Queue: 3 jobs
Job 1
Amino acid sequence: ATLEHISGKMRARNENEALSAHVIAGTHVVFLGLDVKESSADLSAMMSGMEISDSDGNHNGKSKKVVGTLTMSTSAASPGINAKNTRRAIFVGFAIDRRDVLSKQSVSLNANGRPIQKFHFGDYTVLPGRQYEYTICRMIKDQTSHFSSAKFIAHGLPVTVNITTEDPTKGKHGIYFNRGVAGSKSYSEKFAAWRKYHVVKKFGAAQWKSIINPRSITDPHKSQEALAWLSRGLGEALLQFISQANGEGDRLLATAYEFTHEETIQAFASAVERGVGVKIIRHCKGSYHARVKRNAIVKDESGNVVKDWIPDDPTESAKKAIDAVGFTSLEDAHTWQHDTFIERRHSSGIMHNKFIILVKNDKPVQVWTGSANPTDGGIYGACKTDHFICQISKVMCI
C-alpha cells in the first residue's frame, strides 16, 4: 500500500491496491471520500450486479472474471466465508471504524452492522482538537443467508487514515458552527419531554405550533444543556471573547443588527462595569405613522397630520433588551444608556453588520465576526458560523 497521510493534519489520504480514502476534518465533523479502484473487479460487481464466488473454480489460486460473476480463489476468500462451497457474495458498501487515539476507544460507524452505502460519508460525532484513526474496508453480503438475517462481512485489506479535528481555541483563527436547525431531529428526540404547543403568528395568522423552547424548560440544568447543545460552543466563545476586555484601557467596538441575546448583552454591560470602553453601533430603523386618538387621525393647529416615529421590530426588541439590564452603580447605568450605543437611523437599508473588535492599549488585537446575530434565533436556532481572528495586523481604529 502507498501511505500518503500525515498524522496530526486535518487533511489526509491513504490507499491500497483496491481502495482509497480522502479524509477532511473540521471542528465537529469529518468527511470521508471513498473510492474503489477502477482496476478492482469489485467496483464492476457493485455497479452492474455481478456476483463474487469464493470457490477456486480450478483456476490455480488465481481470480477469474467471467460473464455475470467474479470468481475468487480460496486463498483470496475473506475470513468467515466457507470456501468449500460456491456462494454468491455481492459487494454492497463499506465498513468504517473510528478510534480515538488519546482514549484508545473504538466505535463502529456502521448502524446495526449494516454497510455504509455512500462514497461520501460524514461523521458528525467527533470532538474538536482530537486525533482519530479511521479504518475503512469493503463489505460483501453473503447471499446464501436468509433475507431477514443477511450477513455482511468485511472483505479485503483495510485502509487506515489518521486525522486531527480543528481546535478553534488554538491558532490564529477559530471558526465556530452552531447546530441550530441542522440538528432539529436529534434535538427533538433528545429533549422531547419538554415539547409544548404555543400560539405563533405566521404571515399574520395565529396557529398552534409544537415547540421545544430551551428557555422554557423548567429544569434549569436541562435548559442549560439544551442551550449548549444547540450553540455547540458558538455562544460560549462569543462570551469568552467579550470577557477578554478586562479593565480600563481596553475597548470593545461592535456593530449589531438584531441584539436581544441576554447573555451577550449582559457580557457587554459587565464590561462597562469593569471600566471597559464599549461602543456599539446598532440598527435603529423605523417609519412615521399618523397619530391616532379615539379612532381619529390627530392634526395640529395648521391642519397637518401629526406623525410619530415607530421603530421596526429589531429596533424595538433591542431597546427593550438594553433597558432590561440593571447596574449597581448609577454612573455605569448612565454610561450604558447614554454613552455606549450609537443608533444608526439614516441609511438606505438595514444595518446588517456583525462584528466586534477588541482593542488593548489603543491597538486592535482581535476580531469577532460572522453570520450569527446576538439573538436566541441566531445562536441557537438558525445555522450560523462565526469567525474569531486572534492576530490582526491592520485595522483602522478610531
Job 2
Amino acid sequence: MACTPKRKTSRREYETPRRSRFRAYLEEGYSTSRAAHLAKVPRSTARGWISTGDRRPGKERPGRPLIISDEKMKEITEWMTGHFDRRAMPLHQIAEVFDIKATDRTLLNAFARHGYHYHIPDCKPFLLDEQRLKRWSFLIANWDRTKEYWQRGLYYDETTVQSTLRRRLKILRKRGERRRLDCIQFKFQSGRTSIHCAAVIGYNFKIRRTDLAGPLRRYL
C-alpha cells in the first residue's frame, strides 16, 4: 500500500503527546524553559500553551455575525408557509420584501441553514380518483352500445395554457413538505397570463377554430 506524501508547509504543528509531556514536566516541578527543552518545543510555543490554557476550553467563539439572522429567517419562513406563489418567488424579490441587503447566494445559504432547498413541485393530477372511477363505471355500463348511439353524442374537452410559463417552476420547501397543498403546482389556473381552450367534437362534426387576434396570437 502506497504511503501518502506529507504536505509541505512552513507551519509546524505539534501533536497532543508533546503538549501533554510539556504539562507533565511542569507538574513535576520543572521550569518553563526546562520543560520546553525536554519536550523539544520552542519556548515561545510553550509560553503560548501556558497563556491560552487547554486546547478546548469549552467556550464557543463568537465568529463573524450572520448577515441574515435566524430571527429574520424564521420571519421569512412563516411568511411564505401556506402560499405557493411566495415559495416560488425569486430570491431577489424575497430580499426586496424584507429589505435584506445580500446576494442571492447568501440568501440561499441562509435557507439551506434552516433546511430549505429548491425543488420541482408535484403537479395536481389530471384526473382525481373519483373522476377515474366515474369514467370506468361509465365504460362498463355502456360498452355494448351501438354505433348509432355514439353518433348522437358530442364530446367536450378543455385545457388551460400558461402563456408566461417557459420552464418548470421551483419552490423553496423542506424535506417532508412535498405533499403540502402549498407545495403542489395546480395546472388549471386561469388568469391574465393564461389562455383557456375548449373544443367539442363528434362523429362527422367539429366546431370551427377561432383564431385569437392581438398579442396572444404569438402564444399559439
Job 3
Amino acid sequence: MHSASGTSFDPVLIHDMDDAEVVGLTGYSVGELRLIFRPASLRRNPNQPTKFPQSLAYVLSFSDIKLNQLDPNCKLLQVYKLYNARQERVGRVIDLASIVRPCPLSPKHEGMAHIFTDPYTSLELYQEFFINPFMTHSDYRSLRVA
C-alpha cells in the first residue's frame, strides 16, 4: 500500500511460533511492513558470526488471527489494527526471515466504501480487514468454500 507521501507499505504474513502449521494460519500473524534494515554493527563487519538475525524488519501489528471466527457472509478471517493507550499503532522489530509472504487484506466496511478507497489507500483509511487468501477474483470464485 502507498501512504499519502507515496511510500509503499505492504501487509505480510509473519511466522511467529515454532509449531506453526505448514498449511493454515496457526502460529502466524499479520503485520504492515514499514522498514527493512541491518544493524550498524553487522554493516561494519558482515562476516562476523552473530546469534542475531542479519536483517530485521519493523512491522505495525494487527490483532491475533481468530481461526474459529469466519465472517458468515464471505467466509474470511478478520484482523484489525492494534493501538496503544496513546492511540498510536503498535509496532515491533522482527527477523526479516520470519516474513513468509505477502498477505492481501481487504478492508471491512459497512455500507458504502470510503470515497478515496483504492489499493493504495485502504490500509490508511480502514481499521478492520479481511485476510484475503485469494490473489485474484477468479481465485475467490473458484476456491472459496460454499
